[in-house]
Amino acid sequence: MSKKEVKLAELSLLMEALCEERLSLSEQARLEEIVLSDPDAMQFYLNYSHLHGTLHWDQAQGAEEQIPEATPVSETDLPETTPSTPALRRKYLVPGLTAACALGFILFVWTAWFRQSQQPVVVENPADQKEPVAAGNAVETQLAAQNNLHRSFQIEASKHPMLQAQQNDRLQSTGNQPLVAMKPERVPPVEALPASAPDEAIVTFINDRIQDGWKAANIEASPFATDEEWVRRVYLDVIGRIPTTAEAEQFLKSKQPDKHQQLIQKLTASPSYVTNWSTIWTRLLIGRTMSRDINRRALQDFLVQSFADNRPWSDIVFDLVSAEGDADTNGATNFLLAHLNNEAVPATAITTRLFLGTQIQCTQCHNHPFNDATQSQFWEINSFFKQTKVVRKKMPPKAGEKQASQLALVSLTKGGTTFYETRQGLMQPAYPEYAGVKVSDAPNINRRQELAKLMTSGDDQQLARAMVNRMWAHFFGYGFTRPVDDMGYHNSPTHPELLNELAHQFVDSGYDIKQLIEWICLSDAYRLSSQFASDNESDNPDDGSTPNFSRMYVKQMTAEQLYDSLQVTANPALVVTDYSNAWSKMQKRDQWLQQFVYTHENEENDETTTFDGTITQALTMMNGQLVRNSLDVKQEGSILASVLKERSPDNRIKKLSLAALTRYPSSKELAELKRLVKERTRYLTNQNVPPQTAIQQSYQDIYWAYLNSNEFILIH
């Protein structure tokens, strides 16, 4: 359980004790501490109090209804000890009214703060301002007199984090005047950038909007990351591996003021950029599973060519949605070939989720419970795929081989209406419609081509918004929405102006993916350290809070990034530099990945991995073949072989640290590792291990420890 979950669990027990009138003084102090320290805890307290008051009110009503009617008697016949009906009513209503009044008092304070924050004024008469509080105290006193056993829980507005003034200087400037509860400042609206704005203006816009978010949340950003941290981060995010020692040293020694921009442009122009992003999107489009009867290489070839030519994203999506032909000739067909099972339900869901950032899969059976997405909208999108048929074509047999076959995607000319069944068992018609635009269901209308046109052209920029959101999440670990592929009015983005403006500029750039990457990586937010600062500890999305991007959130390497990075730590010569001769190496990587892949085999063709912090991953890092290759001192050109040629222990350790962690060790770390090497070597020689072998094993241990550290596997 997270710290927040533990705190809320403790709060639940304390609230239960409060309502049952068994709260001790120490527990009451702890309850006050929790509620005043966390806005979520405050909301939990309000909801719990409201529910408790409601239950007491219902209990009182139920008690009155259960009282049987009795024969009327004269007043003189009643015993003196018999409670009257009003007394019974008070017995059940007093606790409920107490909670309700306490809730009303809290809401009164909250409303007063809200109004003051909307229209801040200078308090001229402190005595007058205390009157509402005094009235509230009078109410509590009266309630306490009616029921001394029920303790009232008071909350001072000035102590709650959501009601504090924003800056210390404002608190000091008020002098002796009472503090006025204030909300975070509302940032004024900003002007949109002109079409096709200069890169510098777009990066500045990103910086300004992110800083607006910090100001609104009353937090300060972490300091900038070191060059060592940044260069390792950008290599992993852009080309999918850590830098070699030569690449890292070249950047770290550079004194050019624009070396960050030069490196990003160099990386996006490299073959490794092409192989990395074709791998990312192959995984997103058809998963990691290799058992499907599709041509995985043909799809990746299509993506490789697209990223190498820097084709507009809109063109790539158009080809994937409207593709026709066989799996070998047209690699783009393999996307839909993998998902046209089960009446094209998977194809419908994954198309909208990947390209439009909209999850509609749960509406195939019923209307969405939380927004206005309807079952009919799902089947309207689904009807675009109903003309498409998957056929298996027999191929001419080759000499000495059995006759082979391959899948093909064919668009039929027939028209007609799609029917779906509602929860009431009624059959309803659905016609092809997207974003309010209806497409004819007549024959000879290629519906998938019409859908591709609607998605990639016109005034609808959802394609651009979805891509910007996904790319931001790739580089920061979190997008503007969570989850990244569930955008809509029901899931408001954290920085709507920034998301919309980046989408506009992405469209104006011609859907230039490299340009979008450069904008994001040159922003101040991307250059921040991953370390918490004293003023941004609340910016921790891992606990469920809203990301404000006041620091770089730590991400774990993907399985592909780990594989390629371990190749670098073994032998830089193994780094793939050209896709034309890299396919065999990538096949080996895909086979290695299968140990982590698990296919759900559900209607949406979902899969998951057992890579993220599992025992399988730990064992792979401790004694897997890739790590053993990195520790091989006999391999020509290996990192360890070159390290052992160094005469100085200092240089040896520095090279190992740079190769694994893209940084040099601190003086304290260097001294400690030298001591460990010396002691380890002495121990092995005492065990009759030859001195040269003992030295090799000592440095192997140091390198193994580096590779198995959190610092290696995390992108920070």
TrEMBL record:
Domain DUF1549 intervals: 206-389
Transmembrane segments: 92-113
Pfam families linked to this entry: PSCyt2, PSD1
Stretches assigned to the DUF1553 domain: 447-676
Keywords: Membrane, Transmembrane, Transmembrane helix
Name of this protein: DUF1553 domain-containing protein
Organism of origin: Gimesia algae
